[in-house]
Design brief:
The radius of gyration is 64 Å and the shape is elongated. Among the domains are: about 100 residues, Immunoglobulins (Immunoglobulin-like), CATH 2.60.40; about 90 residues, Cupredoxins -  blue copper proteins (Immunoglobulin-like). Helix content is about 5%, strand content about 40%. Strands 6, 12, 15, 17 and 20 form a five-stranded mixed β-sheet that branches. The chain has a five-stranded mixed β-sheet with strand order 16-22-21-18-19, with no helix packed on it. Strands 5-7-11-9 form a four-stranded antiparallel β-sheet, with no helix packed on it. A hairpin with a 5-residue loop joins strand 3 and strand 4.
């Protein structure tokens, strides 16, 4: 057995001590050091150090800062001061962060008021009229704006046979705040067809693009003809034009109106038709006959100053 000299042991102990001091291995329970006293002479020595006092470092919790995405991060100063025991100081620091989730961004849209509906109204001053043959009557038409601005065209349909209608203005211009009016003039002739006593409806139509409104007034055409006894420049009676009449369902009333300054007498040649010889018509007066038959009936008037002024009533 080879014995180790004290000098060698002393050298080994110093070496082990230097190893311990150089590494700062505080808290290591044992250190195994292998060294060689000289070449070819290995030595294994077990050294058990004394157990130190376990003093843990103080844990410093970092302050947390939350970001807008909800992820918290922490910063803190770790305690790296260890005790004198074999357990080194705790060098970690744990922080707890609470992030603030941002409120969703809202887009505010100011509501817009829908445009007012573009329209208009049609109204009549009167919804019914009555007229004789060979006369005129009128209807006043009013167009009022209801959002529509522009021209409104007027037309008339469905008038009794032989009647015609014309407007004083066939277009009415509307502004945002003002409407307009137009007068419809209806004219019949002696040959227009009389209506029933209850009259006949017709239509006044107002249009503007796709907008359309209508009014439905009623017109009565009476089976009555008023003949004005005319005078010429020489104060003599003049000949009458042939007077066409449409008998329709009933008799025709014919009235002579003396617009002269003389007494006028009506003469006729067909008593069967109702055109009997009449009395004298005073100036400004009238004489009425009822035509009961269909046919062409001659008549004449005279005032005692001139020759006869003939004419024909042609009843169909």
């Amino acid at each position: 057995m080879t014995r180790t000299s004290p000098r060698t042991i002393s050298r080994i102990s110093r070496t082990a001590l230097l190893v311990v001091l150089a590494t700062g291995a505080v808290g290591v329970s044992s250190v195994l050091t292998a060294c060689s006293a000289d070449a070819g002479s290995p030595l294994i020595t077990s050294h058990k150090g004394s157990k130190g006092t376990d003093t843990s470092g103080t844990d410093t919790t970092g302050a947390s800062t939350g970001s807008s995405d909800g992820t918290g991060t922490s910063t803190g100063t770790p305690d790296n001061t260890g005790g004198s025991s074999a357990t080194p100081g705790d060098t970690s620091s744990t922080g707890t962060g609470t992030g603030t989730t941002p409120a969703p961004t809202s887009t505010s849209t100011t509501p817009t008021t829908p445009p007012a509906a573009q329209d208009f109204d049609i109204a009549l001053a009167a919804n019914k009229a009555s007229m004789n043959l060979a006369e005129t009557t009128t209807f006043q038409v009013t167009i009022a704006p209801k959002g529509y601005v522009g021209d409104v065209a007027l037309s008339v349909t469905g008038l009794p046979t032989g009647a015609t209608g014309t407007f004083s203005a066939d277009k009415v211009a509307l502004t945002a705040s003002a409407g307009g009016t137009s007068t419809l003039t209806i004219k019949t002739t002696s040959g227009s067809t009389p209506t029933a006593a209850t009259g006949a409806d017709f239509k006044i139509v107002a249009t503007a693009g796709t907008l359309s409104h209508e009014a439905t007034p009623n017109l009565v055409v009476v089976s009555k003809l008023v003949i004005q006894i005319p005078v010429n420049s020489n104060t003599n009676l003049k000949n009458y034009d042939d007077i066409p009449l449409v008998k329709g369902a009933g008799n025709i009333t014919v009235v002579w109106n003396n617009a002269t300054n003389d007494v006028v007498t009506i003469h006729r040649s067909n008593t069967a038709a109702g055109l009997n010889h009449g009395s004298a018509i005073q100036p400004g007066g009238t004489e009425t006959r009822t035509v009961t038959a269909v046919g062409k009936f001659p008549f004449y008037t005279h005032n005692g100053k001139d020759t006869a002024s003939p004419g024909f009533i042609d009843v169909k």
